[in-house]
Design goal:
Layout: H1 2-22, H2 26-46, H3 50-74, H4 89-109, H5 122-132, H6 134-162
Helix pairs in contact: 1-2, 2-3
Amino acid sequence: MSVFFFAIAAFIVIAGGIGVVAARNIVYAALSLLAVMVGTAGIFLIGLAEFLALVQLLIYGGAVVIVILFALMLTRIQDFEFLSANKHWPLALIVSISFLVLFLISILVNKRTITEMSGVDISELGLTLFADWAIPFELASLVLLIALIGAVVVVRRDNEENR
C-alpha cells in the first residue's frame, strides 16, 4: 500500500517539476513548485518522517513560495522578458537525458536490498538540532535574514530611482 502512495507522491513531484520548468507564466511555475513541495512532504510522510513533512510544508511550501510570489509582484516583469529566449535548451536536454540514463543504469546495476525503515523520535531530533547543530542552524537563519533584508533594500532602491 505504501508503494501506491509513494507512486502518487512521486507523480505529483515529477508533474510539478515539469510544470515549474515548462510553465510560461511565472505564477503558474510558483504554484507548480508548491505542488512539488507538497509531494515531497508526502514522500517524507511515507518515510515516517512526520517532522520533516511538516517543515517541508511550512517552510518551503508556505514561506518560500509566498516569498517568491511577493518578489514577483514587486518586480517589473518586462525587465526580464529576455530570459525566456534561451538558446541553450538543446544542450540542457542532452545533459538531462544523459543524467537520467546514468541514474537508471545505476539503479539497475545496484543490487542492494532495502532495509526496514523506522521513525525518528521528534524530541531526539529537536535535541540534536538545537544542541549539536545549534550554530549551523543559527547561521542558516542569519543567511535567510540577510537575504530578506537585501531583497527589501534592492526593491526600495529601485522604487526610489523610478520616482
